[in-house]
């Protein structure tokens, strides 16, 4: 079991560690360019290539999407409660608790732990969460959001492109399938490198408080995911993916939104870093249960 867990987590932590070391060494890393490349080209290609290769049936996709919405609602309630108890503004904690790092960490771990089918289920969760994060999440954090901006979002466009594949059983032409497979292949490594680079720019403050709140995020996230999986009576793999994705640490994107909105970015940075550190201990436990 330990060898299996190491095989799953080692590539994720090593590649993220390379990004962290790269940034700490002072060598330039074009974060903005890489982020745009991953968001606008890599992720949409990964979505299309994964869903076209695995032939995820529509019931599995819709069940995972519904489970994601229920998990976000559950964690919103948790975030509101914790904000009242901790004294932090709800606009700071709510996005951090609702939107975990299901992309940079969730997708590669799901792939290495559960294979292509697991990745497809994780993509369904990631897509649903991303749509809410780029609309409700931006609005809650204090930024502007619009329906027009949502329609222009490449991830939403890739979701629209995936719908005929899932619900009508369409197949991509061979040339297009090869193209999106090639482009999608760059996404996970670049996500992990960028995660490491982003973590290198965050400094810890009030470590005790950050560890407590970060620990609550990942542990209660996993608990909510398990409860939703039981409620919807999901199949074994789908439930494992749901708990895994719900257990992820706070996404770096929440920190970027807090910086843009000037809403306690240092508190959000603390949550990102502390929850990520704690996930090195928590995720192996989740995987041991899931595997």
Automatic annotation (TrEMBL):
It is a multi-pass membrane protein. It is found in: Cell membrane. It comes from the Bacteria. Keywords: Cell membrane, Membrane, Transmembrane, Transmembrane helix, Transport. Signal peptide: none annotated. GO terms for cellular component: plasma membrane. One of its GO terms (biological process) is transmembrane transport. InterPro entries: Mem_transp_PIN-like, Na+/solute_symporter_sf. The chain crosses the membrane at residues 33-52, 64-85, 119-142, 149-170, 182-204, 211-228, 240-259, 271-290. It holds the Pfam family Mem_trans. Belongs to the auxin efflux carrier (TC 2.A.69) family. This is Transporter.
């Amino acid at each position: 079991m330990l060898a299996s867990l190491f095989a799953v987590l080692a590539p994720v932590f090593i590649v993220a560690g390379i990004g962290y070391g790269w940034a700490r060494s002072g060598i330039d890393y074009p974060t903005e360019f890489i982020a745009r490349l991953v968001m606008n080209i890599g992720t949409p290609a990964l979505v299309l290539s994964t869903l076209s290769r695995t032939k995820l049936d529509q019931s599995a996709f819709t069940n995972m999407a519904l489970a994601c919405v229920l998990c976000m609602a559950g964690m919103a309630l948790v975030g509101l409660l914790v904000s009242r108890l901790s004294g932090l503004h709800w606009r700071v904690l709510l996005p951090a608790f609702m939107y975990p790092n299901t992309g940079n960490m969730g997708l590669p771990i799901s792939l290495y732990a559960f294979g292509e089918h697991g990745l497809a289920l994780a993509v369904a969760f990631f897509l649903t969460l991303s749509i809410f994060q780029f609309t409700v999440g931006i609005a809650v954090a204090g930024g502007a959001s619009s329906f027009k901006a949502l329609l222009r979002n490449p991830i939403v466009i890739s979701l629209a492109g995936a719908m005929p594949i899932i619900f009508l059983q369409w197949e991509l032409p061979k040339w297009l399938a090869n193209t999106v497979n090639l482009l999608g292949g760059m996404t996970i490594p670049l996500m992990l490198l960028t995660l490491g680079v982003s973590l290198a720019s965050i400094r810890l403050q009030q470590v005790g408080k950050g560890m407590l709140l970060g620990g609550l995020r990942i542990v209660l996230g996993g608990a909510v995911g398990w409860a939703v999986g039981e409620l919807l009576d999901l199949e074994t793999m789908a439930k494992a993916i749901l708990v895994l994705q719900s257990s992820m640490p706070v996404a770096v994107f929440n920190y970027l939104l807090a910086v843009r909105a000037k809403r306690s970015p240092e508190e959000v940075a603390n949550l990102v870093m502390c929850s990520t550190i704690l996930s090195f201990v928590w995720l192996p436990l989740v995987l041991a249960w899931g595997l």
